[in-house]
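The protein record passed on for reference:
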Amino acid sequence: MSYADERIIFDADSHLMELPDYLREFADPDIRDRLPKLGETATAIFDAKNYGDTGAHSPETTKKLLAMGDDITRGPKWHEALGSFNGKERNQVLDLLGFKKQVIFSSFCSRLIFDDPDFDIRYGAAAAQNRSMAEFVKHDERMIGVGMVPLDEPDRAVAEIKRVLDMGLGAVWIGSDAPGGRSPGHPDLNPVWVLLQEAGVPFILHVGSSTLSIPDPWMNDGRPARTTARGGAEVIGSKDLTVIHHSAVRFVSTMILDGVLEQFPKLKGGVIELGAGWVPDMIRRLDHAAEIWTKSEPHLAQMTRKPSEQIHDQLRFTPYPFEDVAQLVAESSPDLYLFSTDYPHAEGGRDPIGRFLRSTESLTDVHRDRFFHRNFLDIYPA
């Protein structure tokens, strides 16, 4: 029996744990030596040990982890988890989990790809990441690999998205800061949205699409610096959690108010590992804004669908395990939210199905099925 048991489950968020040469191995020669070894500046949590030499867990470790069976989510996390950096091992993990599909993101690449001041580094690292991800997921059609593409230079972005599509990756992770100093609704970015709409591939905003940390002045509280709690990758502190979704709210809101979802009605998107408690309020604010500012912003009057309808039709969100999914549904819609595990990251917990079953207990069977299964298919058609 698998962890999913007899349930039909699609996992909207999981990760691979990059080994140090994850980027360099697949980088173009002219950029390879300029890319860092990943994990070297991360905290001790992310210790790749000698896995970079072996590329797999030892046979003894693999046997021990496989013996956990449907308790695999209760096992080790990060690099110690089975299938965290080896695609063939992940195939075995999916057998134990029993999921129909699992979306797979990288863990350490986002700040380099979305934030580096050198755009050659950004696009070179993105190209290397995308090739490396394609290599990881090639072992199992249940894996949906996620490409990464900065949008700062639209022509380069379109070229890289085309390569992502040619490699068979199933989503495009983008940054959530204003790309190249533009709103996502700027006409320069229309070729990006056209390409994704025609391909039927969603754009993704994920934790790491923008900086994870609250600005430093807010950490100036007179206490000793807590660098180990705000290290690299997805390591954050308590204050960071309270604002981690802000850039996604800005991106989605400007995207809608500037008419992107109206103009491209078949474009789909996911907002992943940023929680969802803020979603009902954002929907209410957007509907209000689109109604109130029609005179001073005439393009708003041309919308044929309210922002809430656009979101319902085109966007999906993953709640955190501590959020009450039934409450979110009551405040918005049963069609907006997706199940996720965050495997093999610790934030997903030891029993993500159990936690989400408890927070969806009051939903109807139909609405519960939408959360674990059918809403996923709205942006990742079978």
Q: What stands out?
A: Residues 10-379 form a domain with the TIM Barrel fold (CATH 3.20.20.140). The beta strands are 10-15, 101-105, 143-148, 171-173, 203-206, 269-272, 315-317. The first helix runs from residue 29 to 32. The chain has one domain: 10-379.
